[in-house]
Amino acid sequence: MTTGYVQSNLNKRVIKETAHETFKEISKQISTRLDGLFNEVRKDVKTLSSLTEEILQYPMRYMNNEITFSYKEGFYIRDQKGVASVYATNIETLTSSDKMKLEQLSLVENVIDTIVAKRCDFIDSSWINIGSNYSLYYPEINITQELSPNLDPTKQAYYYKADSEHNPLKESRFIAHYNEPWA
Description:
This protein has helices at 2-57, 96-107, 109-118, 143-146, 157-160, and strands spanning 69-72, 75-78, 85-89, 126-130, 134-138. By secondary structure, the protein is α+β, with helices and mostly antiparallel strands. Strand 2 (75-78) and strand 3 (85-89) form a beta hairpin.
C-alpha cells in the first residue's frame, strides 16, 4: 500500500513537472513565432511608409485627375468608391493643392488592402494623416457618421505617438483604435 502511495505521488510530481516544462517550451515557441510574424508586419509597414513617402515627395508623378471630391457635412470626401475612405477636414474650399494630397492618399489604399489581407491576424485597420487636414482610413467607413468634421488628428495619441518627435527612428507603432468621445 505504501509503495502504491509513493508511486502515485511520484507520478503526480512527474506529470506536474512535465506539464510545466511543456508549457514553458510551447510558450517559447509561440513567442518566437509571434516575433517572426511581427517582424514581417514591420517589413510590410515599412514598405507602405516608403511608398507613401515617395508619393508625397514627388506628387507630380502620381496625379489622377479622375478622382473627384464632394463636400458633405463638413468633410471633402472622395466620390469614387474604394477600399478606404479618403477625405479632408477643416477646409472651407478644396484647392488643387488639397486635391493633390487627397489623390496621393488614394494611391496607397490598394497597398494597404494587400497588407491587411495578408496580415489580418495582426492588422485590421490603418489611418494615414497628412497634417491636420488630409486623411485615409482603411477599411472604408461612413465619415459623416463616425467622425467630427473639426477633428484634428495631430492632437490625437495615434498621431503624435508616431510623429518624428516621439518616434525619431520611424519604428512601427501599434496603437489602439481611435474612437470619437461621442461614438
